[in-house]
Amino acid sequence: MAHAIRFHETGGPDVLRLEQVTVGDPGPGEVRVRHEAIGLNFADTYFRTGLYPAPLPAGLGVEGAGIVEAVGAGVTHVAEGDRVTYTGSPLGAYSTERIMPADPLIRLPDGIDCETAAAMTMRGLTAAYLLRRIHPLKHGDTILLHAAAGGVGLIICQWAKLLGLTVIGTVSTEAKAELARAHGCDHTILYRREDVAERVRELTDGVGVPLVLDSIGKDTVAGSMASLRRRGLLVCFGTASGVPPLDAMQLAVHGSLFVTRPALADYIAEPAERDGLADELFGHVAAGRIAIRVNQRYALDDAVAAHRALEAGRTTGSSVLIP
């Protein structure tokens, strides 16, 4: 029997249960994947709490890596025995094995193991579209990055240096500041002690930055807007502190700003675009230009503790579940 984490009602981490499940044979366009590692993402908590609705009972998790054990009719881009990774719906990655659509699967190149892949596919592709698709950044630009010591943040810090960008990163502790700086963050702001917008203005000679990458949401949106230069872009790509209220008039007050709330799914919906971003990401990782920090590992049956740590802000870098 296979095992999976499921929840029958929304709520706190305690609603998660490890259950035995039956995994059959894949149908047309489907595969059976045996997981070797599973990505743990803050967005998983949104499904568990009901912020992102899902029919109940439900599985959890949208990112994993492992081995293709069987393929259904019509599947041609992966074969039995392939090492693969994926990110995206449907829910159910928190499992030892699963049946899933074949389309999201990305074949892993040599040199990238499944644990690294599970820790970086969503985070890495997010960093890829934020830096390569959202805004025409140029060498010498300065950006503000919230949660610079998180899984996405550490990848962005490293990738930004490859692009010749200066990164100002916000963090909660000096330990996280040190970690961010070790991965290429040029300036760190301890947001619990310092005024973020004021420090950004100091570091940019009063001009502000052209781009803010904000995964926090409600608690940071005001400071993010105040940190932007005239006609700057605020990218709200996460809502760790809740959905930010946006007053359109404030965009004018702060200098005719732009704002977007992107979703990774819309930047990898087309296979060619997804594969292009993945190839660039995997190339940097395989060559050692970007290091993936797996700082927390949890057993699958310890998902409750993993979610508690995630929500309490006790994690850095990437976290994975091991089946």
TrEMBL record:
<dbReference type="InterPro" id="IPR020843">
    <property type="entry name" value="ER"/>
</dbReference>
<feature type="domain" description="Enoyl reductase (ER)">
    <location>
        <begin position="11"/>
        <end position="321"/>
    </location>
</feature>
<dbReference type="InterPro" id="IPR047618">
    <property type="entry name" value="QOR-like"/>
</dbReference>
<dbReference type="InterPro" id="IPR013154">
    <property type="entry name" value="ADH-like_N"/>
</dbReference>
<dbReference type="InterPro" id="IPR036291">
    <property type="entry name" value="NAD(P)-bd_dom_sf"/>
</dbReference>
<keyword id="KW-0521">NADP</keyword>
<dbReference type="Pfam" id="PF00107">
    <property type="entry name" value="ADH_zinc_N"/>
</dbReference>
<dbReference type="InterPro" id="IPR002364">
    <property type="entry name" value="Quin_OxRdtase/zeta-crystal_CS"/>
</dbReference>
<dbReference type="InterPro" id="IPR011032">
    <property type="entry name" value="GroES-like_sf"/>
</dbReference>
<dbReference type="Pfam" id="PF08240">
    <property type="entry name" value="ADH_N"/>
</dbReference>
<protein>
    <submittedName>
        <fullName>Quinone oxidoreductase</fullName>
    </submittedName>
</protein>
<dbReference type="InterPro" id="IPR013149">
    <property type="entry name" value="ADH-like_C"/>
</dbReference>
<keyword id="KW-0560">Oxidoreductase</keyword>
